[in-house]
Amino acid sequence: MSIKVAIVGIGNCASALIQGVTFYQNVKDEDSVPGVMHTHFGNYKISDIDFVAAFEVNSGKIGKDLSEAIWEHPNCCEKFSDVPNLNVIVQPGPIHDGVAAHMYETFRVSENHKPVDIVETLKKSGADMLVNLLPVGSAKATRVYAQAALDAGCAFINCIPEFIASDPIWAKKFSDKGLPVAGDDIKSQLGATIVHRALVELFHERGLNIDSTYQLNIGGNTDFENMSAENRLATKRVSKTAAVQSLTPYDMPTRIGPSDYVSFLNDTKVCFIRINAHSFGNLPIEIDLKLKVNDSPNSAGIVIDLIRGVKLALDRKIAGSLESISAYAFKHPPTQVEDYIARSWVEEFIEGKRTN
User: Fold this and answer.
1) d(CA 223, CA 122)
2) Fewer CB atoms < 10 Å away: N or C end of the chain?
3) DSSP secondary-structure letter at 264?
C-alpha cells in the first residue's frame, strides 16, 4: 500500500520530509513518538510513503539520487536521520519565476539543463501526488506544476502561498478531473502562525479586545534569503495575515511577515509575537513571545500527515479542494476555521464521517 510521491523543490523542507520518512519508518501504534501527530493516518503508516520523482533547478542536485541531493548546498536542514539510496534521480525542471533574480547564484542555477517533460515524468513514475515545495513567490511555476499534475492524473499538495486549492477556478479544475487538491501555504506543526492563532483565539474567547498585533520572523535558510525581496511576498503576507485576522469578528491593526534574513541562523527560525489588548475595566494587557524552531522539520511534521490524507482522498475518489485537511494544515485554506474545529474535521475525515 505504498503512497507514490513526487516533489518539486528539493530544498530544506524536502530534506526534512525525506529524513522524517526514514526516521519514523519503524514506528508502531503503541510507541510513544515525539513529533508525530498520527502514527497511522487511516490505514496508512509513515513507512508507506515512497518517493518516486523529484524536480529541481539547482545544478548541484540535478542528476543525483534524491538521498544525496537533500544534502547539497545551499540546504542547511539539520541532519537527524541517514537516508538510504532512494533510486530516484532528481530531474531538471523549468525555471519560470521559481528563482528570484537575486537567488540564481545561491540556487546554482544553470541554463544548460533542459527541463524534462513534467507530465511524462509524473506518468512514468506512477506518482499519486505532486508536493509543491517551490520558493515563495513562484506564481507562474506553481501553476505550471499544478497543471502538469492535472494532465498526469496526480493529486496536488500546495505548500507555498500561491492560491490553488483556495482558488475556486483551480479547485474546479481538479474537481472536473476527479482529483483532490490540498493547500495553500503550509502551517508548521508548532510555528509562528499556529501559536499566534492560538493566542488571538484565547484573547477573544476570554473577552479581551485586541487593539493591535504583530509577528516578526527572522531566519537564515534560503526561504528567508528568497523572501528578502519584497516583490516575492505579496501572497505570503495575505496568507499569514488572513490566518490570524480570521479569528476575530472585528478588524485589528496587524503586521505579519518575514522581517529579515540572518545568514548565520541557517535553518533556525526566530519569531517575535506581540499582542496589545484591553481587558476588564478597559485596562491594558500586553503579551510578548519569542519562539525559536528548526524551521524545515517544523513543516515536515504536517506534510507527512497531508500526504497520507490526500491518499485517503484518492482511495475514496474524493475530488476538488479538501476542506478538512486544508483547514488543519494550511494558512490560506478554502475554508478558514478555528484550529480545534479543523482538528475535529480531520479526525472525522480519517474515520470516513466527512466526505472532504
Assistant:
1) 26
2) N
3) G
Please, are residues 331 and 187 in contact by the beta-carbon 8 Å criterion? yes
In angstroms, the CA 267 to CA 274 distance is: 23
pLDDT digits (tens, 9 = 90+) for 271-314: 999 999 999 999 999 999 999 999 999 999 999 999 999 999 99
* Domain topology for 3-187+297-350: Rossmann fold (3.40.50)
CATH, domain 192-294, list 3.30.420.40, 3.30.360.10, 1.10.8.60, 3.30.300.20: 3.30.360.10
Residue 74 grid cell: 545551499
Start-end of H helices in 71-221 = 118-125, 139-152, 168-176, 192-205
Structure-derived torsion over alpha carbons of residues 107, 87, 294, 335, reported in degrees to the nearest 10: 90
Local structure of residue 39 (DSSP, 8 states): S
Q: What's the CA gap between 227 and 233, in Å, rounded?
A: 6
- pLDDT by residue (tens digit) across 311-323? 999 999 999 999 9
